[in-house]
Amino acid sequence: MKKFKLYIILFLSIVFVSVNIYFIEKADSKVSRTSYVEDWKDVTTSNLKKQVMKTGMIAAGEEKNIYFDRAGNGAFEEFLVKEGDSVKAGTPLFSYEVEDRGVEASYVESEIQQLEDEIDSIENHIDDLDELKPVYSPLPSFSSAGDDKNEDKSIEASNLEIESSIETEIAGKELEISRLEDKINHLERQLTDLESEETSISVVSETEGIVKSVSEELNNPLIVISSNSRIAEGTLNETETLEVTEGQEVAISSAGITGKLEGTISSISELPEKEPANDNLSEYRFRVELEKNKEKLLPGYHISMNITTKEAEDAMTVSEKHIIREGPQKKYLFLMTEKGKVEKRTIETGLSVDGKTAVTKGLKKGETYIREPLLFIEDKAEFVTPLQVDELSWKDIKGSDRHTILKNMLLGVLER
């Protein structure tokens, strides 16, 4: 009797499995085109940044070397500043006694003429820049197509950007003229002193900064002035120089800095820091121009720098591991459409950072993709998902007919 019951159970099990296999393999079967989906995610947007992380130090933006030609200038008298002194343009640095006032006057006059020629050259360059400014023409009053309007706006934005860049360069040139005129004024005062038979001449600073060193032995450079402007410095190995280029953005942080500083790569040396060796990667020094800030930055501060080499702003992103690949080039995702169907969608990808990949073509924000599709998921198949009890309401249940409820329950059981 027990064996008979066992045979009956075994027979029914075989029948049940066979019936399910039949429905699954049947070409027009609903079951064969129904996929069970457990894990899915909406397409969102985010900013991706590929960065190179480096350490470095804060340094003076510029060092000005002051020289003294004992053979040509005359006899040195005294230093008028010492190490650590703050100076500005026009501050006397040292004095010397002129041995031949006529020769010195000729030298000063030639210096003045050279500076005036330099100012003329800069003014001509400013005139050339003014001519490069975009010429604006009024937009036509008649209505135009949307594409034409967008094109007009694009041209206008481009012109504004060009004009802003030119204005910035002109402002820099005018500042340079002002600096040269200050130097001419000082030389003219020297010339006046020489003409009045004054034999003691003072050399003044051309820049603002701090006296870094003074050579008491009168070796050149006689005085070194460290400017008040600051830069960041670091080194790149030869592999990193292939990624990092001038103009890239840099975020800087340090224990001595509140928050973060921003800057851009201003230069990368083409020569290695040390003599190249076969067993080590060469290092190349780079400099970062800092944006204006209120931080008191001292040369020697140790810093951390994040250099952004590539960036995708407001990009549609998906997890790299959820992208399905066919061959070296073809990539796709399984999407869950609003019609309850699975769609196999070909996509194109861009930047990948920390497991996230930007999708450049083939997706729209808000669409839903299957995170880890099972092997038997098919394109254009209907899909079912696990019952979300916390999202189920009695109103939804009452709104469904008995046939639909039984059908979905059966499909769910067969899929499991």
Automatic annotation (TrEMBL):
Family annotation (InterPro entries): Beta-barrel_YknX (IPR058636), BSH_YknX-like (IPR058639), UPF0194_transport (IPR050465)
Domain YknX-like beta-barrel, residue spans: 232-307
GO terms for cellular component: cell envelope
Domain (YknX-like barrel-sandwich hybrid): residue spans on this chain: 65-218
Cross-referenced Gene3D superfamilies: 2.40.30.170, 2.40.420.20, Helix hairpin bin (1.10.287.510)
Signal peptide positions (record): none
Domain of life the protein comes from: Bacteria
Coiled-coil regions listed in the entry: 105-132, 163-197
PANTHER family: EFFLUX SYSTEM COMPONENT YKNX-RELATED (PTHR32347)
Protein name: HlyD family efflux transporter periplasmic adaptor subunit
Organism of provenance: Bacillus salacetis
